[in-house]
Amino acid sequence: MASTSVRIDTVTKRYGDSIAVDGVSLAIAKGEFFTLLGSSGCGKTTLLRIVAGFLKQTGGRVLFGDTCIDDLAPQHRNTGMVFQSYAIFPHLSVVDNIAYGLRARGLKAAEIKRKVDTYLELTRLSHLGHRKPRELSGGQQQRVVLARAMVIEPDVLLMDEPLSNLDTEMRIHLRTEIRALQRKIGVTTIYVTHDQEEALLMSDRIAVMRGGRLEQVASPHDIYNRPATRFVASFIGENNFLPAVHRGEAGPGHVRLELPGGQFTAKLRGDLPAGALEAAFRPQDIELCPPDGGGDGLVGTLADIQFLGGTVRYAVDLGGGHLVQVAGSNRSGVALPAIGTRYRLGVSPAAIALFAPEVA
């Protein structure tokens, strides 16, 4: 499988006075699975379509390796495209759908058969080669599209929300298959999704987009555990946000914070934001402790319990309209606490992130 690096150099796309993509720069390594993640309207699909050649950018450049491809038509960029809609030819069999791009390139029949057979096997479709699309499940149809995109041996594979039309069980199964196949083939892949879990599971790196701009580009681990902005902290996973007041240093790289319900020590992950602060910490990083146990922590009252089988969700009221979500595991033989129980919420200093509040 061919593969190449991709460089997006200060790419902008305007529609009149509206900016869909605003000066985005990215360097995607050869063989990398790179995801553009964001909510609807953030610019991720527009950027993907610019790379594919379906849209012309207003400014900036796109390079495959060291070659600028801005003047190349889509069919000359050697990309494979997987769309949200399956876009399968309904009158063609699975084999003929997969072979379509190879025939358009003028390959000989024996070479076409060899390549098609290889990708039928890789996508577990060998027993379905004679079937028409109407005889396939949604997951099987999407595997046909994937095989058709990969069989041409593209330099770059582009995928635009390819799993959004599938049910939850099939989506979970197929995203694992896609990632395993991409690793095996080694093709550079740019993947667009609004699904956080999908992005975290499948990607080597993620670019979180908002309003046509990049909020953060990092590994899934760092995107989740070290969000660079308040938006990323709120968009990826779940966080509790509380107003915080800086009460001075607490040793090298640590600060003392006053929050509703008590005080915490936080480990700085960078420079302390100037002005007002918000402290963020995830529900699973909170420990419910006795209220008189001493040490750091916020003291509040258990206001709600949600039993979810393997996990239990607690809502702790700190007063003043501040409710903190806590996630814990359900352990056999351990009774659930009673509503109204007082607790101190313990959080490791390393689990607290500090941000400047965003203006609505």
From TrEMBL:
SUPFAM superfamilies: MOP-like, P-loop containing nucleoside triphosphate hydrolases
SMART domains (alphabetical): AAA (SM00382)
Pfam families (alphabetical): ABC_tran (PF00005), TOBE_2 (PF08402)
Annotated Gene3D superfamilies: 2.40.50.100, P-loop containing nucleotide triphosphate hydrolases (3.40.50.300)
Source species, domain of life: Bacteria
Keywords, comma-separated and alphabetical: ATP-binding, Nucleotide-binding, Transport
Residue span(s) of domain ABC transporter: 6-236
Annotated PROSITE patterns: ABC_TRANSPORTER_1 (PS00211), ABC_TRANSPORTER_2 (PS50893)
Family membership noted in the UniProt record: Belongs to the ABC transporter superfamily.
Protein name, entry field: ABC transporter ATP-binding protein
Origin organism lineage: Bacteria, Pseudomonadati, Pseudomonadota, Alphaproteobacteria, Hyphomicrobiales
